Amino acid sequence: MQAPITLIGAPTDIGAGARGASMGPEALRVAGLAAVLQAQGLTVHDRGNLTGPANPWRPPQGGYRHIEEVAAWNHGLHGAVLDELRAGHLPIVLGGDHCLGLGSISAVARHCRERHKKLRVLWLDAHADFNTAALTPSGNLHGMPVALLCGLGPPELTGIGGHTPAIRPQDIRQIGIRSVDAGEKRLVHEHGLEVFDMRTIDEMGMRHTMELALAGVDGDTHLHVSFDVDFLDPEIAPGVGTTVRGGPTYREAQLCMEMIADTGRLASLDVMELNPALDVRNRTAELAVDLVESLFGKSTLMRKQAPTRAT
């Protein structure tokens, strides 16, 4: 039986290089996220929006922008997500920029440690987000959450979940990657992240890519999806601050979501980096809602029997 779903808004662009992602939660609500999930017979509770520090829009200090404010937002989100997981709910975090993946995933990892469950994180993104202050001059923390989750960075950010590192590199699979800095690439290789970049998808197709990314997911696995909307090709999803050409098409993205749904193991979700200020008539938010609906079982295909689940 599907767990009740909880929507948690985190309206901040505190870690981003462009303003506007703070409006993402409301755009997803306007696009009908709760209604489409309820139409599938799911119970949905909207907890409203978390609050946190305003964006001071300062330059980097010590290699990081807004480190205190980012820590405050992620501590608040960690607590909210952990509370919902402990209550047996499935939290959906409505971002906000992707620095919020730090609070969300650290809570999921903590819950998995408490329940002695395996963790698998699917990071759907154009970027690896494995930067450190030594590698990026911008200091924007939305480019660093995976590195921080893996323990690379200041303790006020790496220790948010009470355990450093929050996750191991082998817990994560990155899909759709196509923009990685040279130093970041070396760091990804050094730490052994499993990355399915766009060349992989081009060569093997989305089906085989997802089979590999989901390999080993079983009944003892907590599957978390962190969906950065810039994962999608900007031709279909212009409403993000960090567009990168050459992303998945609509059908590739649908197949990705449907195969995740087929596992029956999805237990938490982030929807990040939607920027309505850069969108066209909320079309990116509507597409994101369409794809989230597929994550919860909507299929564009007609089959006489359910597809085989990942093992």
UniProtKB/TrEMBL annotation:
GO terms for cellular component: cytoplasm. Binds 2 manganese ions per subunit. It catalyses: L-arginine + H2O = urea + L-ornithine. Its cofactor is Mn(2+). GO terms for molecular function: arginase activity; manganese ion binding. Pathway: Nitrogen metabolism; urea cycle; L-ornithine and urea from L-arginine: step 1/1. Its EC number is 3.5.3.1. GO terms for biological process: arginine metabolic process; urea cycle. This is Arginase. The lineage of its organism: Bacteria, Pseudomonadati, Pseudomonadota, Betaproteobacteria, Burkholderiales. Keywords: Arginine metabolism, Hydrolase, Manganese, Metal-binding. It holds the Pfam family Arginase. The keyword Lipid biosynthesis does not apply. Belongs to the arginase family. Mn(2+) binds at residues 98, 125, 127, 129, 228, 230. SUPFAM superfamilies: Arginase/deacetylase (SSF52768). InterPro entries: Arginase (IPR014033), Ureohydrolase (IPR006035), Ureohydrolase_dom_sf (IPR023696), Ureohydrolase_Mn_BS (IPR020855).
